[in-house]
Automatic annotation (TrEMBL):
The keyword Protease does not apply. Belongs to the BioY family. The lineage of its organism: Bacteria, Bacillati, Cyanobacteriota, Cyanophyceae, Oscillatoriophycideae. It is found in: Cell membrane. This is Biotin transporter. It comes from Rippkaea orientalis (strain PCC 8801 / RF-1).
Length: 216
């Protein structure tokens, strides 16, 4: 933060171009709804990238799958656009409704879903979106700060997922055995990171453009 002293008044002033942005209560509410819907929809949509646009004329448009869905991108985009409250509320609604009947998780839903190895990552959506929202609104929107916000949120999601996996291996070894733990960590964390890093770049660019258009 750029701070300077006013010699006449002997007070510290914050330069306006470095101050944090604020999201209105209306935007928080709207983005909580949008974030919930995006998370549900993106759960079932595989992420992909295309070959460079300058090669489209010669090679056509070819899609390359990233091996992950857009779900994490929806979680982090909500934090970058709606802030901490919208991000956390959207994911609280997603977890609650998925546990109490709606088949909105990747493998369905219901109270028994806590036994799924991936459930820790879903729980991590809540603090991950919250942290992403906190960091995204500390300063005015910049591409690099939004990317760092999304990266921090992703880190929290994976941390929660890993802790949950290890906990399941001790508390419910019939669900997650110690022998299967390395494979599950590789499947849910290590192998998904490259694709999710690409999604973070997309989230940073999209949220930066939208916040410039919406003036916040």
């Amino acid at each position: 933060m750029n701070i300077k002293r006013d010699r006449n008044k002997s007070k510290f002033l914050v330069s306006p171009d470095q101050s944090g942005s604020k999201v209105s209560a209306t935007n928080e509410f709207l983005w909580a709804i949008i974030g919930f819907l995006l998370t549900v929809f993106s759960t079932f949509v595989q992420a992909f990238v295309t070959n460079p646009p300058w090669n489209w004329e010669q090679q056509g448009v070819n899609s390359v799958p990233l091996g992950v869905t857009f779900q994490v991108g929806a979680v982090l985009l909500t934090g970058c656009m709606g802030g901490k409250n919208a991000g956390a509320l959207a994911q609280l609604a997603y977890v609650f409704l998925g546990l109490f009947g709606l088949p909105i998780f990747a493998q369905g839903g219901g109270l028994d879903y806590w036994q799924e190895p991936s459930f820790g990552y879903i729980l991590g959506f809540i603090p991950g979106a919250w942290l992403c929202g906190v960091m995204a609104f500390k300063r005015r929107a910049k591409l690099e700060s939004l990317a760092l916000s999304a990266l921090s949120g992703l880190g929290v999601i994976h941390l929660c997922g890993l802790v949950y996996l290890i906990g399941l291996s001790y508390l419910s070894p019939t669900t997650v055995s110690m022998n299967s733990l390395p494979h599950l960590i590789m499947n849910y964390s290590v192998s998904s990171l490259p694709g999710q890093f690409v999604i973070i770049c997309v989230v940073a660019v999209v949220s930066f453009i939208l916040r410039q258009i919406l003036f916040y």
